[in-house]
Design brief:
Elements (H helix, E strand, L loop, with lengths): L2 H6 L4 E3 L7 E3 L2 E7 L5 H11 L4 E5 L6 H9 L7 E4 L4 H11 L3 E5 L8 H10 L5 E7 L11 H5 L2 E6 L2 E7 L8 E3 L9
Parallel strand pairs: 3-7, 3-8, 4-5, 4-6, 6-7
Antiparallel strand pairs: 1-2, 8-9, 9-10
């Protein structure tokens, strides 16, 4: 393929209704970093819930229970389009994505999962219905992504979350300057 042919291909942006300022493309690996309690898990759940299509939340850090259930209610994810699992292999995840035609997967968190950055890329490349992977990652005391720089390097979009606010620090799809907002945007009022 020539550069001209690649540029001529129409690459439709993927918009996330809950966070429309964030521009993604098919196959996007999006990593959310920040300290504990910053809102990373809430933002990923909110994004998955807003898609209105089959999604999968791999809740590895927090087992399904009251705390996770209340977070899902807060973000409007109390519906049948989002699957929630906690202990799952890469192969089982691929099978679930295929069986349910999942369009987005959230991994919370990458440090506790069996998923490497390569595994996440392979899922995006080999699962026809899967458009984006949203991955939660902690940062250490020096501000580096836990688990090494492989994930930060491999991702297409890096979102920093602190104090229930988010901002893009790296993006292959848009300028990162000034892109951000509230983790839980307020619903728009009808006029």
């Amino acid at each position: 393929m020539t550069a001209r042919e690649l540029v001529a291909v129409r690459h439709e942006p993927i918009r996330i209704p809950s966070h429309p300022a964030l521009v993604l493309a098919r196959g996007a690996l999006v990593v959310f970093v920040g300290p504990r309690g910053a809102g990373k898990s809430t933002m990923v759940a909110s994004m998955l819930a807003s898609l209105g299509q089959p999604t999968l939340l791999l809740s590895i850090e927090e087992l399904p229970g009251a705390s996770l259930a209340w977070r899902l209610v807060r973000v409007g994810a109390d519906h049948d389009r989002m699957l929630v699992v906690s202990d799952i292999s890469v192969e089982q995840t691929a099978a679930l994505i295929e069986r349910h035609q999942v369009v987005a997967v959230g991994v919370d968190s990458q440090q506790r999962s069996a998923f490497s950055p390569k595994d996440l890329r392979d899922l995006l490349r080999t699962s026809p219905s899967l458009r984006v992977a949203l991955v939660v990652s902690q940062v250490n005391q020096t501000g580096d992504v836990r688990g090494g720089q492989d994930l930060a390097h491999e991702c297409d979009v890096l979102v920093r979350v602190e104090g229930m606010r988010w901002g893009v620090t790296k993006s292959r799809y848009q300028k990162a300057d000034g892109v951000g907002g509230e983790v839980m945007p307020k619903p728009r009022q009808e006029e």
